Amino acid sequence: MKSYNRGIYIVIGIFIFYTLIFSGYVYYSFTNLAFNDFYKRMSVRAQMAAQMELGTPSEVENVRDMYQGFLEKLPDQREYFFLIENNRIIKDSDANHLPNSLFKEIIANGSADGHEGILFYSGIRYDANNGNSYAVIVTADNFFYSYHIRHLRSLLISSLVLAFVMILIVSRLVKNTLTNPVRRFVNELDNISSENLHMRLDVRSNKDPLNDLTNKFNDMLNRLEAAFATQKNFISNASHELNTPLTSIIGEADLALSKNRTPEEYQLALGNILEEAEKLDKKTKALLLLARTGFNGKSQVFDKLRVDQLLMDVKETVQRINSRFKIKIDFSLLPENPEKLKVKGNEQLLHLALSNIIENACKYSDYNMVQVALGASDEDVVIIIRDNGIGIPDKEIQYIYDPYFRASNTGNYEGYGIGLPLSRNIILMHKGKLLINSVLGEGTTVQINLPIGNYKL
């Protein structure tokens, strides 16, 4: 049984059980109230009948006037008088249809009530003025019980049947209301595969109970489509970047071996092969390092280090690589508390990440001045790197973290497209954030947030 069917059947069962209990309670309470009321009416009549039959003349006259003026005769009402001697009721033929339990209870308790079917009886023990005791019994048909109670019972049963039918109909409608969107949802999902990730689930009105889930699935499909596009782009770029030096190496070797050459020509060919092999080695090592930084970094050693000192070391390293690079570090926003400049991380990896980003800023700004600002909030150390370089085209900024991707306006600049993805992985390893804002032809601003070094890795 499917879970939603089981749930609906459980709800139906609970509702029917509650309806049965409630109907039974109403029927019992109403019947009990009607019986008690009828017994009281019969008990009053038994008392008055005893006084009219066995009382003094004055009592008889007063009771008769009251009885005739205020009390109506019950349906098929009959009155019986039996003498009591030695705590025994002297019965006659009129008592044959009355149960023995009625007489025993009158002797024991002084009064008794009961019924058999629609025949109700009520009896009392009455001590007459002549010194004798009598059992006075009144019997009557309970018309209320024979008609109204039965009508109530029939009404409750028919109401239960009608309620059961309505519950089935409503539950069916509710089931369809709940399951039809799910079936539609599943059918639409069956049509989406890796070949058509551009398809999206149809978002219905806001009243659709699956509207939020549909939006979440569409968001997930957007991320999957972007991930597939990134993968395809990476494969395309990586194959090109790795294939180019391999093609050069193979071509240079074929050319050198095509005929006998002088030692100088062989040395030149080997030099070209070595140069291309070194490029290939750098690309593969960078790719391996990028893959390693894609893990959670728990195998790395993390220590507390000061970011201002790290930036000074990075500046010195970058300018040692190329003396034409111009870097200015702004320390005017430093916090008064030096502890806010400490982060917990791996110094070599953070050094590599900052070096890549600052070197890119210097390279793509044609050796103009690169501004680096350092500040801190209560939670993060903030590093801002701003250049006035070539910028990144708007349509391509979404691909800047793809390995081996290079923007279309970087053709005149040397690079492999590994530095920025590698830096981003390193910053993520340190639970930080990397934000990039760029305007084509005006420059790029990079913001790095690293949590202050009181978090657990």
Q: Care to describe what's here?
A:
With 457 residues, the protein is an alpha+beta fold. The protein folds into three domains: 3-150, Beta-Lactamase (2-Layer Sandwich); 212-292, Signal transduction histidine kinase, dimerisation/phosphotransfer (DHp) domain (Helix Hairpins, Orthogonal Bundle); 303-451, Histidine kinase-like ATPase, C-terminal domain (Heat Shock Protein 90, 2-Layer Sandwich). It is 54% helix and 17% strand. The chain is rod-shaped. The model has no long low-confidence stretch (mean pLDDT 80).
What fraction strand?
15-25%
* Average pLDDT number: 80
Please tell me the CATH architecture of the largest domain by its name: 2-Layer Sandwich
Which strand order spans the largest sheet, edge to edge or round the barrel? 2-1-5-4-3
CATH topology of the largest domain: Heat Shock Protein 90
Number of domains: 3
The CATH class of the largest domain turns out to be Alpha Beta
Structural class, please? alpha+beta
The name of the CATH superfamily of the largest domain reads Histidine kinase-like ATPase, C-terminal domain
Q: Could you give the count of β-strands?
A: 12
Secondary-structure element order, N to C? HHEEHEEEHHHEHEEHEEHEE
Major sheet attributes: 5 strands, antiparallel
Poorly predicted sequence stretches spanning 5 or more consecutive residues: none
Radius of gyration in whole Å, from Cα? Answer: 50 Å
* Count of helical stretches: 9
What global shape is seen? rod-shaped
Gap between N and C termini, in Å? 47 Å
